[in-house]
Each structure stands twice: as C-alpha cells, then as structure tokens.
Amino acid sequence: MAPAGSSRWCPTPQQLKMLEEMYTSGIRTPNANQIQQITSQLSLYGKIEGKNVFYWFQNHKARERLRLRKKLTKQLQQQQLYHQLQHNPHFLHYLDSPASPAFQHLSCYNPASANLFPQAGIHDEGGKQVTNYTWNIDIPEKMDKNKAIMRMYGSDWLMMVDVGLPLSSLPCYSMISRPPLKTLELFPVTASNLKEECNNINNNNSNSNSSNSLSSVSCNITPAKVPLSLP
Amino acid sequence: MAPAGSSRWCPTPQQLKMLEEMYTSGIRTPNANQIQQITSQLSLYGKIEGKNVFYWFQNHKARERLRLRKKLTKQLQQQQLYHQLQHNPHFLHYLDSPASPAFQHLSCYNPASANLFPQAGIHDEGGKQVTNYTWNIDIPEKMDKNKAIMRMYGSDWLMMVDVGLPLSSLPCYSMISRPPLKTLELFPVTASNLKEECNNINNNNSNSNSSNSLSSVSCNITPAKVPLSLP
DNA sequence: GCAAATTAATGATTTATTCAAG
DNA sequence: CTTGAATAAATCATTAATTTGC
Q1: Residue A187 to residue B187, Cβ atoms within 8 A
Q2: Which of A41, A140, A193, B20 is 20 to 30 A removed from B228 (C-alpha atoms)?
Q3: What percent of chain B has pLDDT over 90?
Q4: Chain A contacts of B160, Cβ < 8 Å?
Q5: Do the Cβ atoms of A227 and B48 come within 8 Å?
C-alpha cells in the first residue's frame, strides 16, 4: 500500500500476487498492449501506472536471474551441478521463455519450435570466478515486431491503450473476481499517420493472430505536428 | 533521409545538424518536455518521433563517451595525459554537464555550485589493466525529481506535453528559418493525474528559480556521479 | 563503372548497474 | 535488506560507406 504522499509505487498484496502469477505464467517482457491491460486490471486493487508494471517485470526478471545465478554458482562450488547440466542442458531455459503454453500468444515465439544451443563456460571477471551459461535461441522467423516495449516512449503510447484482451487466459484472472472490462478512450489520428501505419502492417504482417484491425494498427501517433509555442 | 518502407528512422541532414547543435549546446538527457519540443521542431524537416530523439541523445552521449575514452587511452599510452589530469582534473566534466550557461535552466543544476571530487585509480578487470577516473558530483540539495525521462512510460506522458519553452535560446534556433509559432493542443487528462502532478510539484519545490510553477517541474538532475572508466 | 561482399555507423533493445525509499 | 526507479553499458540489427573483383 502506498502512503499518501509517497514518492514511489507500492504494490498492494493483491497486485503483487497477480504480478507474480503472471510472471510464473511466463510473462517476462510485456509489450505496450499487455502493460496497458495489466495496468487497468491491477488498478482495481490500488493505484498503479503503466510504468510501475513495466519496471516491475524488468526488475523481477533481472533479480530472478541474479538469484538463480547466485544459487547456481553456489551449487557449482558445492558440487554436482555440472553433471546436472550435462544431462539436461535445457533446464534453465524457462528463465527467459514462457513457462506455460497458454502464453505463447503473449510471448510471440514458440519454444517448442526453437532450436537451443546450450553453452557453458567459466571465466575470470575482476578477480572472482564467474560462470556463464548461454543459450542461443534460433527463432524460426521474424515475428511480431510490436513486442517492443520502447514503443511506449513515443507519443504512440497514447494509441496503445486501445484493444487487447488476450490476457484473459491468465490463471490469476480466473482466480479473482473478474472486473468489468473498460472501454478505453481513443484519440484522433491524422490520416497520414494511419496510412503510414498501414504500410508498416503490410510490411510486417507475418502473424494473423490479431483479432481486430484496430489492435494491429497499433498505435502510433507520430507527433506529426504537436504544436508548441516557443518564446 | 528515410527510404520508403524503412524500418528505422533516418535523420535528415537538417535534423542531424540541429541535434548535434543541441548536444554541443549542452543537452544530454532531455526530459519529456524537451523531447516533445525537439520532436515537433525537427518534424518540420522530416519524419520523426519522440523516441527517435530520445534514442539519439542516449546513443550520442554514450558514443561520444566511448570516443573520448578511446582517445584518452591512446593519449595515455602515448604520453602525458596523466599530467594534464593532475593539473586540471575537471576538464572532462563537460561530458555530462551543460556546456553553455545558457542551458542551466534546462539541466537544472549549476555546475558552478557543484563540488567535484575527482578520483583516479587503476585496477584489474578480466586480466587486462583498467584505469578508472571518477568524479563524484555533490549536488547541493535534492532537486526536482521530475527529471525522469521514464515518466514518458506512464500515462502521464500526456501531462508532459504542456508548457515548456526554454528551447528557444538554442543556437540552432536562431540559425534556421524560424517556423511560425503554434498553439499547443492539449489532450484531456484525468483528474487523478492532475492531482498527482500537483502533488509532485508541491513535494519538490526547492528552487524558486522557475518563472512559472508548471515549467519548473520539468527539469533535469544530472547524474550524481559521472563515472569514467578508461580501458 | 557497378554490383556483390565487407566493414563501419548508428538506430533500437535488452541487460546490468546504481540510487534511494521504506 | 528488499525493491521501485533511473541511468549506463552492452548488444542486436539495419542502413550507409567502402572495398573488391570483374
């Protein structure tokens, strides 16, 4: 819970629980649409903004990785891990990929069809020994470009709040009382921008996963001319 | 110039020139307001989005740093730099701080009043010797928190496009044909967001330097630590 | 000259690091 | 000590320079 004049977001237990479930369900780097959905869902349980969701996943992923790395290093020092890895070199893979098949449409790549090339090595870094495990993931084809979280930087953020629904299959959604879906308010877009986006779509349409055209338009209002008065 | 179906932004010569001038004028990490202003200005010379501006400054800063670092390393190997540093340990400071006093109101911290604590050291990193120079910049008081570019992530992005004016004193503005002033169109903002922003203002108003309260929200705290590591 | 092949620049993302609130 | 927030570094990916063989 966030204190009244708090400077930073403080997740409610409910929010935290849902976030964690989404994480264990396989969500790692939600895109703008997903973030918007998650945010509006979680906002029913307390104050929250999109950036909080973004940061949470970023931090959580990074720190889980750290924890695991630390743990592994310890285990390595204390024995046997090496054999474990040799017998099942993929068992770490879940770190960066969806854990549940239910979320393949969220992460936009299918681990089953990806080729893994595990590598492991030990080297020196600043005096202390470090163990690196690297998996080169060969993704079959170039997939949905819209994943980019950075898209939120642009003014496009505005447009990204429309549509989106696939979140409904999350375990946490069935566990909690399902809040009513909200309709999001869209801002007008210039004709030229729309045309441009359509071109992009034509270039990139590899996946026909999208349910309606608006969602695929995604979202960009280029600041065509955001008028500003400069003194 | 950007090819028709190009996947990435390609700055026009005009845009590039202006960006470089802004950089040499001292802009390093523009905040949301500044990015929005820059974007709408540069959009007169070609297609551009806020994120392009953001990325450009981030990349340019980082790569300038790299270039300088490399140059210095070379000089070090080839002679005398060490003495240079000892005689004027601050001469690297411009890397992350405003170059021109005209932009103190943009960066919101006055280098003149900052205390610098230069440090230099050599240590081992992964086998090869590394020299680090670090300047700890002691900022007099905790200043405006709103500097964060990350604010653009949140829905507050909307809020940030208002106000803002100080860009006019840039050299590049006087060099190019001055485009006609436009009136900014504002999007509706929810009451809660407004309230929030107001709270932030109330919490952080330490400096009375600003002419109006809204514009003062948008300033920059340059990093409290300007670390340089020489490979 | 002029493409195909390489290499260098640089736009865009991701990951690591750091700061600071609580 | 944990973790939200922010920045910097590393990395990926595409475009532009350039080299090369013809």
Answers
A1: yes
A2: B20
A3: 20
A4: none
A5: no
In three-state secondary structure terms, B186 is coil
Interface test with A, best of B47, B49, B59, B130 (most A CBs within 10 A): B49
Q: Residue A101 is which amino acid?
A: P
For residues A184 and A221, give the distance between their C-alpha atoms in angstroms, rounded to a whole number.
16
Residue B9: what residue type? W
Pair A59, A205: CB distance under 8 Å: no
Distance, CA of A95 to CA of A135 (rounded, Å): 11
B92 closest CA partner among B59, B137, B30 = B137
Please, which positions of strand C sit below 7 A from a protein CB? 10-22
DSSP run (H or E) holding A27? none
C-alpha–C-alpha distance, residues B151 and B156, integer Å? 7
| CB–CB contact A224 B125 (8 Å) | no
The band of B210, judged by pLDDT with boundaries at 50, 70 and 90, is very low
Between the CA of residue B43 and those of A2, B14, B167, what are the distances in Å? 40, 10, 15
Least confident of A26-30, B153-157, B215-219: B215-219
Q: Where on the phi/psi map is residue B8: left (φ > 0), alpha (ψ -120 to 50), or beta?
A: beta
Chain D nucleotides close to protein (CB under 7 A) are 3-10, 14-16
Looking at this protein, which amino acid is placed at residue B219? C
Nearest CA in chain A to B195: A5
Per-residue pLDDT of chain A (231 residues; tens, 9 = 90+): 555 677 899 999 899 989 988 887 778 888 888 888 888 889 999 999 888 999 999 899 888 888 887 777 666 666 554 454 445 444 444 444 443 333 333 333 333 323 222 333 333 333 333 333 333 222 233 333 333 333 343 333 433 332 333 445 454 544 433 333 332 222 222 222 322 223 333 333 333 333 232 222 233 333 333 333 333
DSSP letters spanning B56-115? HHHHHHHHHHHHHHHHHHHHHHHSTHHHHHHH-TTTTGGGTS-SSGGGHHHH---GGG-E
Alpha-carbon dihedral angle through residues A60, A61, A64, A66, given to the nearest 10 degrees: -110
Half-sphere CA count of A170, side-chain side, radius 13 A: 26
Per-residue pLDDT at A2: 54
